[in-house]
Amino acid sequence: MLSAMAATGLALSLLVAPEAPSTADVVPPGKITVDVVTVNGSGCPAGTAAVAASHDNTSFTVTYSDYTAQAGAGSTPTQFRKNCQLNLRVHYPQGFTFGIAKADHRGFAHLPRGARGMQRAGYYFSGSSSTGTSTHDIAAPTSDNWQFTDTTEVAEIVFAPCGAVRHLNVNTELRAFTNSANQPAFVSMDSTDGSVRTRYQFAWKRC
């Protein structure tokens, strides 16, 4: 039903050279929190994006409640593309730093025959000129949930510089296309019950 194509992967250039590879047992103690500093984009109007860190400090999730790109019947010409940029501040103990090892993107798509959809994502630390994106195509016909996972090799994980405060920018984009003006087509990164979330897995290392 769905097809995925990673256009470039999330192999970002390193901000700092990695020390020892991150392992599952290198997790900071205490409580990790993630604050939303700024929110911009047509896919995340004010109050429609929420961020929460996991209890075990291994990941954080972003929940969207109004993030849908649509085309065809019932849509306007500008609604085929939606995007969202979140600027996040991660609070964690001194002596550690982090990167993003994996991202799980989930949503729902309704695409009749002749339509298609696209999901794109990327992230980078403020102050870095390096960035990368992953692009996934959603094929029609479908009317079902979709899920894509982007994984970064340990040697290619971008870590925030030790001892520096760098905000994490998370960029996402959805697009919907259709050849028929009489049929609706949409790609969504939300759900009515809030259960559809994007999960980002931390990679921790000691400074």
From TrEMBL:
Transmembrane segments: none annotated. The keyword Glycosyltransferase does not apply. It comes from the Bacteria. The keyword Iron does not apply. Keywords: Signal. Residues 1-24 form the signal peptide. PANTHER family: PSEUDOURIDINE SYNTHASE RSUA_RLUA-LIKE DOMAIN-CONTAINING PROTEIN, PTHR38847. This is DUF4360 domain-containing protein.
